[in-house]
Amino acid sequence: MRSSSLARRLFFTAAVVSVIVLALAGLALSQLYREAVERAFDRNLNVYLKTIVVDVATAPPGTIPEPTGLGEPLFETPSSGWYWQIERLQGPKSEVRRSESLPAPGLPSLDQQRIPIRSDGFREGYIRGPENQRLRVVENLIDLGNDGQFVVSVAGDAEEMEEEVAIFNNALFVTLGILGIIFVATAWFQVRFGLRPLRGISQSLQAIRSGRSERLEGGFPEEIEPLAREVNALIDTNREIVVRARTHVGNLAHALKTPISVLLNEIAGRNDPTTEKVREQIGIMREQVQHHLERARIAARVAVPGTVVQVRPVIEAVVRTMEKIHRDRGVTVAPRGISEVRFYGEQQDLEEMVGNLVDNACKWANSRVEIEVAEPANAAAGDRRSFHLYIDDDGPGLSPQARQEVLTHRGRRLDESKSGSGLGLSIVSDLADLYQGRLELGTSPLGGLRVELVLPAAQA
Predict the structure, then answer these.
(1) Tens of pLDDT along 320-362?
(2) Edge-to-edge strands of the sheet including 438-443?
(3) Which of 204, 314, 338, 385 could join 457 in a cystine, given CB atoms 3.0 to 4.6 angstroms apart?
(4) How many other C-beta atoms are found inside a 10 Å radius of the C-beta of residue 72?
(5) Are domains 7-164 and 307-456 of this chain identical in fold?
(6) How far is CA 357 from CA 214, 295, 403, 450, in A?
(7) 7-164 has which CATH code?
(8) Is the peptide bond before 73 cis (omega within 30 degrees of 0)?
(9) Which pTM was predicted?
(10) Dist CA 67 CA 54 (whole Å)
(11) Are 118 and 46 in contact (CB under 8 A)?
(12) CATH class of 307-456
């Protein structure tokens, strides 16, 4: 898909949005899970904390009891990461009791981190404990009156939370990655499937351009159906305009032929110099009118898409005709290398171009005329395919200057001994231009003139 294509834009937009949404969802889920794990960890610490607080509150005055009923062996394992601590802040004497797992100097207070105490006397936070461990701590400040104020702390190893969160994050990111791949693949399929009708229209238009069809055919979604309908209506309108143009051209031809015939009749039987000059100019007028009317008719016909002609039958028919016309001169017309090429245009135009060129070659050839058609080469993207028609003769040929003069001066005849109006090459050149082709003159391998005609080729 090219950078400017609609499919690429849709796919890129869907893919980027999917990735962004999944990334944000992953971050949100990871944070929510971390908070849930932290709350669960705090609830576990609070259970131990409340057990210790009850023991402290029910102990004899002036003593700090050894908590019982904790049921956690890690509180007895040195530097295990699980600790408790009871500290008397005010009272008869300052005193601190720690779990067997907690080495001196004990747990630092959360007060050093300026974490405020809630209204219920609790606060939570993170500290660095022994062995530089990251600990999650829950503290409770209790006031036992004359016995003093106590701070009861319970800490747990925060690495346990991190490990659990890391396991969840790994599973989450793998899952979201798989979902991302699925979403991107779905977006690609959606774009390809959704734009398939547009590709169908493109193929139908190509079929119309290559002559395989005359209208957009097939079923289209309701969003594209108006486009197909308007294109078909445009094609129909174009055909109607061409038909009207042909009719007007025909009417104009008849309208001009009558006055020209009247003028010729009026000067018939007169032989003075003025009459001869008028007769000459009327002849030129008739040829020019005929030429330009024919050009207008051809232009109208070329505007109609969808006409395709096999080249081989046309050339074979022209060869048979020319051999009969020039039989007395003993000219041989030999087609060679005529491939199965199809001309993108009207058969009558191809017959007129080939007929004019072969007839001209036969007039100038000594004994032989050869016709060759080259296979169309692979065209670049967006370019129309074309084929080359070569007509060679063994006549006298033309100098480069004479070739240029023949093509640029309409009706110019270099040798008055040959019959014709001198408009043959001009008509062929005009027709080739209308089909976006070209006519070129060169030197033939047979020693005479080579005429190269380049015309559009229909798709195979």
Answers:
(1) 898 888 888 888 898 887 777 888 888 888 888 899 999 989 9
(2) 332-338, 368-374, 386-393, 449-456, 438-443
(3) 385
(4) 17
(5) no
(6) 31, 17, 14, 10
(7) 3.30.450
(8) no
(9) 0.50
(10) 9
(11) no
(12) alpha beta
Give per-residue burial for 344-379: e unless 16+ CB within 10 Å, then b. bbbeebbbbbbbbbbbbbbbbbeebbbbbbeebeee
pLDDT in tens, 376-428: 665 554 456 788 999 999 999 888 888 888 776 554 444 444 444 445 677 78
Nearest CA to 407 out of 453, 366, 368 is that of 453
Classify residue 134 by its DSSP letter: E
Strands 386-393, 449-456: pairing is antiparallel
Q: Which residues contact 437 (CB under 8 A, 6 or more apart)?
A: 386, 453, 454, 455, 456
Cα 456 versus chain centre, distance: 27
Structure tokens at 11: 């796919």
DSSP secondary structure string, 268-337? TT--SHHHHHHHHHHHHHHHHHHHHHHHHHHHHHHTS----EEHHHHHHHHHHHHHHHTGGGT-EEEEEE
Q: What is the residue extent of each domain of the chain? A: 7-164, 225-301, 307-456
